[in-house]
Amino acid sequence: RKVESTNWLLLGKITRTIEKIIGSKTGYLPEAGYNFVTAFEDPAGHQVYVAVLGAKDHYARFTEAQALAAWAYGAFAWE
């Protein structure tokens, strides 16, 4: 069986700014637009979970997810 991914972050079509992706799920419905849920992990083992719902296109769901995770890593301090 051949399994194809629509996750451009995993495929390398979009440069990752956060190295490790733990898991993710893409989706699309005409009523909901482009959606993406993912979990990132930084080198220290801190995990950030991101959900992007209703992105304007296939590309935006991945870039928006990375931007949200980068913001979370920059705004939050783990003790």
Structure, described:
The model has no long low-confidence stretch (mean pLDDT about 95). The chain has helices at about 10, 60-75, and strands at about 20-30, 35-40, 45-55. It has about 80 residues and is of the alpha+beta class. It starts with 7 loop residues before the first helix and ends with a helix. The chain is globular, with a radius of gyration of 13 Å. A three-stranded antiparallel sheet has the order 1-2-3, covered by helices on one side. The protein contains two helices and three strands. Helices cover about 30% and strands about 35% of the residues.
Topology of helices and strands:
Blueprint (H helix, E strand, L loop, with lengths): L7 H4 L8 E10 L3 E9 L5 E9 L2 H18 L4
Antiparallel strand pairs: 1-2, 2-3
From the structure above, extract its key features:
alpha+beta; 3-stranded antiparallel β-sheet; 35% strand; globular
Brief synopsis:
About 30% of the residues lie in helices and about 35% in strands. The protein is of the alpha+beta class and about 80 residues long. The protein has a three-stranded antiparallel beta sheet with strand order 1-2-3, covered by helices on one side.
Mean pLDDT: 93
The number of helical runs is 2
How does the helix and strand content classify structurally? Answer: alpha+beta
User: Which geometry do the CA atoms define?
Assistant: globular
Strand adjacency order, main sheet? 1-2-3
Count the E strands: 3
> Which sheet architecture does the biggest sheet show?
3 strands, antiparallel
Low-confidence stretches: none
The whole-angstrom Rg is 13 Å
Terminal Cα span: 45 Å
Assembly form of the protein: single chain
The helix content, as a percent range, equals: 25-40%
Question: Strand content of the residues, in percent?
Answer: 35-45%
Order of SSEs: HEEEH
